[in-house]
Amino acid sequence: MSPIVHFVRHAQGVHNLSHANHHLLDPELTPLGEEQARALGVGFPALENIQLILSSPLRRTIQTALLAFSSQVGAGLQVIAWPEVQEASDLNCDTGSDLLDIKAEFEKLPVDFTLVEPGWHIKQGKWAPAAGRLLERAQLARQWLSQRPEKEIVVVSHGCFLHFLTDDWVNADNLHVTDWANAEVRSFAFVHEDGRPVLCETIESRERRGLGPVALTKEQRLELQRMKLQTWIKWGVILA
Fold first, then answer.
1. How far is residue 131 from each of residues 1, 51, 70, 218, 231, measured CA to CA in Å?
2. Which Pfam families does the annotation name (predicted)?
3. Segment 26-35, tens digit of pLDDT
């Protein structure tokens, strides 16, 4: 049986303060972001059921995971750095650090970098900020998650890539290029369409967001995805 996956957008990073900060490479959390991450851990749904914590290997996502899930980490879990859920664009703020550097920074903390390969931070090949590559990366991530043996998993990722990962494109073309708030959590279960694992937001998660129980159809999702990707390409967020 496939797991329930709780997706989390990182807490506020320094780059979230202004567009001028987007030139910063792999920025950290702000003091407010640290508070948001700790508050997330207090109010997180079904916290006691988490069996696996995955995080993008960028600083702000790892920091969010360590602060939000400190009780689970203290009880023996590690934060597993997973490059498949790194951010979509190739802006400096969305680009990670060299593997040796980021490992050295967190070497005294319970973060496992086994899944991170050298060059993961270079936005080329499978990591390129192009629509086709991002859709493929998201599909591979869903496939991997759907086959995990754990009952409940946390994935800490980024606002733009979470639209690719969950295939929920509602309000993705706003000023912030995402409708995920900092330190927001949404919970999903797997269903299968045409033999592929597809994420469906749980009724409880939709209710927490003030939404009704009925989600979009497959056709509606595909059309919305097409429209939002065209907008992001036009804006220069990603490449065609």
1. 30, 32, 35, 19, 11
2. His_Phos_1
3. 999 999 999 9
